Amino acid sequence: MTAPSPDGNPADLLTLKDRALDVAAEGIAIADAQTPGRPLIYVNQGFERMTGYAASAAIGRNCRFLQGKDTDPAAVAEIRAALSAGRECLVEILNYRSDGEPFWNRLSITPVHDSAGRLTHFIGVQSDVTARRQDEEALRHSKHELEEDVRLAAGVQRSLLPPPDVHAGSLHFAHAFHPCDDLAGDAVGIVPLPDGGVGIYILDVSGHGVAAALLSFTLTHLLSPGEGALVTENLGERAASVPPARIVERLNRQFPMDRTRQYFTLVYGIAAPETGVIEYVVAGHPAPVLVPRSGPAAPVAAGGLPVGMVEDTRYESKRLTLEAGDRLYFYTDGAIETVDASGNEFGLERLISEIERVRDLPLRAGIDRIASVVTDWCGGSPDDDVSLLAIERTTPGA
Fold first, then answer.
1. What distance in Å separates the CA atoms of residue 137 and residue 140, rounded to the nearest whole number?
2. Which terminal residue of the chain has fewer beta carbons within 10 Å of its beta carbon, N or C?
3. What is the C-alpha separation between 89 and 389, in angstroms, rounded?
């Protein structure tokens, strides 16, 4: 029984339904399921606006006339399978307007059955989703460009690393660098200084991603000799190395956390290649581990706040002398704070144990072994950058 209209006239209600279909914003088309080719028997004004085809040009035709050269065959096959099976279907398909302009059509097809259960018609509801698809494509393109930029930036960052092995006088240097993302907040440096010393540093910028990497790039520049660097100064006609504590105090003034929104930890030292003397300063960073040629490994004296935390912080340089066969290891906190599947940290004790275990290996092989054990601890995917820097004093003249 047809429900009565508000004024009691069923014909008026039917007329209202017809008008509603005609003026609906979405495109609506009805196809005859019992006639070969399933021709359209009705299209509304929304269909005409969306496709550019007048009703007189569409009725009597199969809706395939909306397809074109770039229409996805998989979407066509999905529609064909749904029609053959008499089931519902929802696809997004590239169609073409009457003037040849492509548009993305979100097409919903619903079968209609009579009172006896026989399939009689299909109703198709069309939505123009071209703007959304274009936005998604633009987003994918932007993401691809960003990924390419990050890849190139990561290559630049790797190019700033020192060689894997560096020899200077009686000192041998080696490092390992394992960023957790494409771009790292860690930095490692082994740089010759104009008065014969070697500047050594390892630093860790808070956070991850582009912001941390940009600050890491900047610090690498400032800690390398050259124009604008902080590590050297002119004394009359000669250049000299700036003491480590004074360098860190300059950095602390230049990068206050309230302005940069970031801080960083750092160990910076100056090594004398002939004597093995190392003057260093620790700013909020894990203390280096000294491995005497004969004796247990242990952290050295450290202290000092991270750079950028507190204005006008004073830093104090420490001094030690490496004897022949001694080693000194610097590392970032990613090496001790990485966790396994159960949430257990690798920890300082375990790191010192690994350092002890490789004391008889060549320096480079040993530091690679330590880095491998640390990254294996977390299944090969650390949550933070893992960086290590090692110094060994060989026999003088060797």
1. 5
2. N
3. 61
Q: How far apart are CA 124 and CA 320, in angstroms?
A: 82
Predicted pLDDT of residue 396: 59
The length of the chain is 398
Q: Report which DSSP code applies to 167.
A: E
How deeply is 339 buried, as exposed, middle or buried, from its count of CB atoms within 10 A (0-12, 13-18, 19+)? middle
Q: What is the pTM of this model?
A: 0.67
Write the single-letter amino acid at 267. Answer: V
What tokens appear for 386 in the block? 């893992």
Model pLDDT, residue 71: 96
What are the per-10-residue average pLDDT scores of the chain (398 residues)?
A: 50 63 84 95 94 96 95 96 95 96 96 94 95 90 76 72 90 89 80 91 84 84 80 78 93 84 91 95 94 93 88 92 96 91 93 95 95 90 86 75
Q: Choose among 289, 285, 308: nearest CA to 298.
A: 289
Distance CA 2, CA 109 (A): 25
Torsion of CA 390, 335, 158, 273, to 10 degrees: -10
Own/partner long-range contacts of 39-42 (Cβ < 8 Å, ≥24 apart): 41/121
Q: Which domains does the chain have, with CATH numbers?
A: 10-128 (3.30.450.20), 162-393 (3.60.40.10)
CA-based nearest residue to 328, from 287, 288, 274: 288
Structure letter (DSSP) for residue 339:
B
Radius of gyration of the chain, Cα coordinates, nearest whole angstrom: 36
Burial class (CB in 10 A: 0-12, 13-18, 19+), 11: exposed
What local confidence, expressed as pLDDT, does residue 397 receive?
Answer: 46
